[in-house]
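Troubleshooting log. The previous structure file for this entry was overwritten by mistake, so regenerating from the original sequence record. Sequence copied from the archived sheet and checked twice against the printout by T.R.
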Amino acid sequence: LFAARLGGRISRHLFSRATRLPPAQRLLGEKLVTIMVWLVAFFFGIDVLGISLTALTVFSGAFGLAIGFGLQKTFGNLIAGLILLMDGSIKPGDVIGINDGKDKTIGQVKKIGIRAVSITTRDEKEYLIPNEILMTSQVENWSYSSRDVRVKVPVGVAYGTDLDLAERLMMEAAAACPRVLDSPKSSVWLTAFGDNAIQFEMQLWIRDPEEGIGNLRSDVLKRIWRLFRDHGVEIPYPSQNVYVKQWPSGTTPTEDSSKLVDNSPA
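Regenerated output below.
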């Protein structure tokens, strides 16, 4: 056991110095060498104890059945972890999102182990996701082919606003945000004429999604608020106008309420 553990530590040290290999390939090589070391130690221990391998064949059927039922998930996670490392679809440092049916967990992959993948979220919670789940579930990998991620920010302006001015101010707010990339270039699209506002959508590009998306939107919206305030661009809020066509008998409208009366013919 001591020799097997020592061999595992030596393999980890050697692969950690192989900087020319990608991180996933280094981790895969480390796991394979560790498994080989433990297998050699197992058979060497059997030989030292004088146990005949032919005697083990008697129990091979029962042992295989026990593995099939008792260790099925363990071996499934082991094989899934090796497959993940071989195909390179998920690597340490990637930002991924896993949908469990109700909520989506987004975090950065810290470690791919024999049984599970360690993911750390923005609130510093660490999740251990079994490797088999990553093989059978839909996973968003924000870092698979490129680390560039597009973030959408909805913005509404009041009717009567100079739309060209509003678009220019939104682009200025995006350019002033340090995390927003210059290339790909940000864009602003008019998306709808809403009930209370003209709706725009800003599309921004960042390269560090692991730093959070909500805080980026907050930063951009604060900059937009200040620019709109300084240039007289109104941000609308829901409101209703009530028009009374006929007042009850014996009542007289006040000065404030008379302003709401529609004088158009009924």
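The longest helix spans residues 23-48. Archived copy saved in two places this time.
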